[in-house]
Amino acid sequence: MAEYNLPIDKDKRKDIATGDEKVDNENLHINRNRHEVQPVVSRAGTSSNFYVIENRHNASVVLGRDVEYDLLNDTDIGMVDISAGRVPNVNVLGKKVGNPDDAVETLGDLIADAAKIYVSQKTDIDALYGFTPDIPATGRSAVGIKADAVRLVSRDPASGIRLIVQPDSTGPTAGKNSQGGTASGVLGGVELIGPGDELMQPLVKSSDLAHSLGKLVNYIEKLEIMVWDFVSYQKQFNSAVSQATDIEAFYASKGIPDPLLIKQNAKCSLDLFSYVENTGRSIRGDLKRYLAGDLGMTKDGPLFTRIDDPVFSSKYHKLN
Known about the structure:
Radius of gyration: 38 Å
Shape: elongated
Structural class: alpha+beta
């Protein structure tokens, strides 16, 4: 007897069961009639404008009008809906119902259908997918793709995959979108949104980051030189102290300090002030400016406060 990997949802084919395990296993897999329980694409109501191509496997292509702007009786709202695995959401009268058990047909569901490519001449694509970005796309042509797994595959590494956000520079739509609205001078880009509630943050531009870190390395090198100078000057003074001899008139009287030691002490103090203290103040100022100018932060006591974006933040690419 052949080994079969049974379908996930056997209830959808229970009406072809015979009671004979061998026959049922064969029918479930070979299934020459390819019978499946599925919703029919509704042709009632506003959907009477639809042109539908569908088969018996819940796969269909619908040519019609945008699902939302059609309700407003708008124009310039052509739509193509390519779907596999539609869910029922309307009754026989073409009215949407909340309970799937009361639905026998489908007008398409951008959120729940198993796999879909939705193309519209004018739509509110973010709202249709249930997204609420800060700047939603409304009244614009759009292409939406949704499935359990989505892959964009380039077989030629030399060509790769490019995500481009750029207005047309020539032709009748130069500087405009498909609806005639302006598309120039607007900051836009690519946002990568994953699961979770993290806030969107700008991605890092590597060249600018390397330049900024190079400045930080330079400050650290200055600190190293300052410490080296301090050690050097302190060694010179220590050497002078170790060889100093006080001048005394009598053994019982307090002696006079060695004048060479006094001179060396003064020189050490002057060197430390000139090459250590002043350098330290200068580097401290540089680091404050680096903190604010490059990192966009200010230090308030032991804490850091964000005042701006880092200089190496991208304006056009964001990630949560």
